[in-house]
Amino acid sequence: MRRFHLVIVFLFTATTSFAQFGVSFNQSSLPFVGLSYEVNNKFLPELRIGTDNYFDDTSLEVVVSYIFKRNETINAYAGVGGRIQILEGLVVPVGLNIYPFEKKSFGFQMELAPILRESSLLRGSWGIRYRF
């Protein structure tokens, strides 16, 4: 039930304000696909679904990031969220979205995210992002 509440809060937040939908794929030892809404060019709530595993081992993350540095090419962000299922815990992502092309829809992403739990883990990842 807790998972359901997190998804509802994510969707309600994204649809009640000006937002831009996006998808991403990040590669690491814990890879994931993300569905996000960029809200008012400042907030980036994202639902992340673990990949490269069995369906029974699929993890979910809900993260809300604040874009604290924005220019034409680079967005720097930091956030907080939670992870459930495998390696449950608090997630604190810090990263960069880089849009090097003339059309700013497609870009690259680098992120460092500690997963804080009894035995904490530091996840580094890189990936691609597309904004609709």
TrEMBL record:
Origin superkingdom: Bacteria
Keyword Signal: yes
Signal peptide range: 1-19
Keywords: Signal
Keyword Signal: yes
UniProt-recorded name of the protein: Secreted protein
Species: Adhaeribacter pallidiroseus
